[in-house]
Amino acid sequence: MEGGKLDDWGSSLAGLMFIWATFQQFFPQFLKDYVQNLWYKLLHYFKPTMQITFNEFSPGLYRRSEAYTVIESYLSSKSAAKASRLRAEIAKESKPLVLALDDHEYITDNFHGVEVKWYRGKQIPERKTISWSPHDADKRYYILIFHAKYRQIIAEKYVNYVLEEGRAIQVRRRQRRLYMNGEGDEWNFAVFDHPASFDTFAMDPQRKEQIVDDLITFSQGKEYYKKIGKVWKRGYLLYGPPGTGKSTMIVAMSNLLGYDIYDLELTTVKDNAELKRLLINTKSKSIMVIEDIDCSLGFTGKRKKDKNRKKGDNPMGEKAKEKEGEGDESKVTLSGLLNFIDGIWSACAGERIVVFTTNHVDQLDPALIRRGRMDMHIKLSNCTFGAFKVLAKNYLDIDSHPLFEKIGELLEVTEMTPADVAENLTPKKLGAAVETCLEAVIHALEIAKEARRVKAQKEEEEQENETETESVPQ
Ligand SMILES: Nc1ncnc2c1ncn2[C@@H]1O[C@H](COP(=O)(O)OP(=O)(O)OP(=O)(O)O)[C@@H](O)[C@H]1O
């Protein structure tokens, strides 16, 4: 692609705009329009520059234009390094302080060698009135100025690039939201700021890397999904005993990609139609989570409204079987859920991750978790030595210690969840020594080992008794 420079014309234009903006407030409207038209004609005659204006408010609309806010985010990422006059502000629901381009200031940007200028203007209303309407306040706008010979590349490529980058910057800056479904098809949300990340997630490092790579590949896969003709979404099934980090991993996913979380409580959804409406009301770049999916759907694929059931209960245990057939309010069906995940409507949500968690993977309907629906099955297991080392680094800030060897041996012969190991590693007193925390882990592991031995012995004795009873002649 041919490179190009806007040279001094862009700067003169932006400079004159500043002067014009300062004096225009003293002129009547007809004179302003006349001078402005004359000025553009003159400019175009000598140097064929072009410009595109992005107004803060579209006529008749009370909301700020999305293009304007996205451009503002894009330019704020450039302004800190390039502009000489900046505004500092805390944007709504944005984490860091944002440094943005000030009024009547301009900066230069470069797209594949083509130089463009951005100017931020402000139009002051003719009459100052006390009003709540944004149309009576100062109106701002951005003007993109470029050489006319680059019209095509700027209009077709650069503007789209700016919008995409700006949106990505907004997502990165925005505080994460955790949505919950309430009554009907509305989502309520809370701003959430959970620090869990893949760096602090205790898991075999190689497996962790695979998962992180998979997530990043997905998030950058817009063109790929388009090429293969598939909706841009990916399903992850997280399974394992309680306390192995299923919920923590969802937060780590959200923090890695900057996605919001939609925590869908299936038992409160009335029917398939409501499920569909909930889906339509979600935004792109999000993780749709159904925790303990085995507790929400029964064997037959019919949801059972079983509020009495505890998380750890086997869904097809006696308790669950008793409830079967009772659920007269049960309207969300397995096929409704399958449609929700990958029916035609799933395409409305845009870039999306779906996560199911379960403690009983073997109880789930294979249709629900087949590859293509739940693309990656992630087993979260009891604490391994590799996972322990991550926890020791998180909690005690150590990479190695003479007591590690003993802990490694114990972890091989007994089972303990990362949640339990983490709890034992937590110092119980301010300034507790590292040894004290590691010894607490060893102590807990030895108790678990002993309990395991006693249990195994008991099972062996019971089996022997059963064999003896069977061999006694009737
Ligand atoms: N792999 C892990 N890495 C780091 N911390 C962990 C891990 N697993 C568990 N934890 C710690 O244990 C606590 C409980 O974990 P979490 O709620 O994620 O488990 P879970 O598998 O979702 O449990 P449940 O099935 O009961 O919902 C977390 O707050 C976290 O601090």
UniProtKB/TrEMBL annotation:
* Cited SUPFAM superfamilies: P-loop containing nucleoside triphosphate hydrolases (SSF52540)
Stored PROSITE patterns: AAA (PS00674)
Biased composition (Basic and acidic residues) is annotated at 311-328
Q: Where is the composition biased (Acidic residues)?
A: 459-474
A single GO BP: response to stress
Reaction(s) catalysed by this chain, per the record, are: ATP + H2O = ADP + phosphate + H(+)
Which stretches make up the AAA+ ATPase domain? 232-384
Pfam families associated with the record: AAA (PF00004), AAA_assoc (PF14363), AAA_lid_At3g28540 (PF25568)
* InterPro entries the record matches: AAA+_ATPase, AAA_N_dom, At3g28540-like_C, ATPase_AAA_core, ATPase_AAA_CS, Mitochondrial_chaperone_BCS1, P-loop_NTPase
Query: Where are the stretches annotated Disordered?
Result: 303-328, 453-474
Q: What keywords tag this UniProt record?
A: ATP-binding, Hydrolase, Magnesium, Nucleotide-binding
* Cofactor(s) needed by this chain: Mg(2+)
Alphabetical list of Gene3D superfamilies matching this protein: 6.10.280.40, P-loop containing nucleotide triphosphate hydrolases (3.40.50.300)
UniProt GO MF annotations: ATP binding; ATP hydrolysis activity
Family statement: Belongs to the AAA ATPase family. BCS1 subfamily.
**Which PANTHER family does the protein's record reference?**
BCS1 AAA-TYPE ATPASE (PTHR23070)
Write down what this protein is called.
AAA+ ATPase domain-containing protein
From which source organism is this entry?
Rubroshorea leprosula
